[in-house]
Amino acid sequence: MSYRILENKALASGIFEMTVEAPAVARKAHAGQFFIVRACEHGERVPFTFSDWSADEGWIRFIFMRVGKTTHLLSHMTAGESVQDIAGPLGHPTPVAVGKPWGADTSIAEGDRLVVVGGGVGTAVAYPVARAAVEAGTRVTVIVGARTSELLILQRELAALDLEELIVVTDDGSAGRTGLVTEPLRELCEAGAVDRAFVVGPAIMMRFAAATTAECGTTLPTLASLNPIMIDGTGMCGACRIQVGGVTKFGCVDGPDFDAHLVDWEELATRQRVYLDYEQIAATEYERGCGCHG
């Protein structure tokens, strides 16, 4: 079975948003979950998190950065073409609904103050999580960051939510505040303005965000949406294993959200780099042999 592409557009330099017709998947999707895409018959399996979906209209949407062979291939596909396979939804939804568990011993409740922190393409995950939390009656502040204004995404969509505040941070000061997302996060923690945090983005950003919430008086319950290397997405291959509180967990079936204060960030970063050289070689070979590159 193939899945028809409805739209594929560039959001920023090297960042794309694809909308695919997948009614059965859209009917079951929740914020924080992901799915596995196989672009073509002999392609690799790549996980993407839902950035949006419509159960009524039968489509799902995801955002990706062009970094390897498969994302290069996807970036050149157009409306009317099809991807080979989509498997999902996979993983557990982010627990933003009232009464659903948040960490080991706390529950999010109506009126709670949540800060959602998204770095880079991680904003694609931050947006649906923030939206679901607002709909659940949570008071939500969103912090989004990027290297420069040209890499900021989903600003209009976030601004349309009923947020307490939207804080934009860029490394070069070209939009919003100059600096890192951890700086406004620390200010909110020190002011006692939040009850819990959700972070998503590059592993190094999440690691420092977790350190920030751990240092602000009473440790702030913090969830991190992790992106370990993944193959089948069902827990069988073991490629996505990580250490959380000294216990081996699988990112696909146990996550993707974990207690950020218990994650072994060094191990996660090391495992993410395992195939980096091979990914670069594959991307280079694809660009060299693909006619669409001229």
Short description:
This protein has 294 residues and is of the alpha/beta class. The chain has 8 helices and 19 strands. The chain folds into 2 domains: 106 residues, Translation factors (Elongation Factor Tu (Ef-tu), domain 3), CATH 2.40.30; 160 residues, Nucleotide-binding domain of ferredoxin-NADP reductase (FNR) module (Rossmann fold), CATH 3.40.50.
Write a structural description.
The structure is a single chain. With 294 residues, this protein is of the alpha/beta class. It folds into two domains: 3-92 and 275-290, Translation factors (Elongation Factor Tu (Ef-tu), domain 3, Beta Barrel); 113-272, 3-Layer(aba) Sandwich (Rossmann fold), CATH 3.40.50. It has eight helices and 19 strands. A seven-stranded mixed sheet has the order 14-13-12-11-15-16-19, with helices on both faces. A five-stranded antiparallel sheet has the order 5-6-2-1-7. It has a three-stranded antiparallel sheet with strand order 4-3-8. Strand 15, helix 6 (203-215) and strand 16 form a beta-alpha-beta unit. Helix 2 crosses helix 8 and helix 5 (182-190) runs parallel beside helix 6 (203-215).
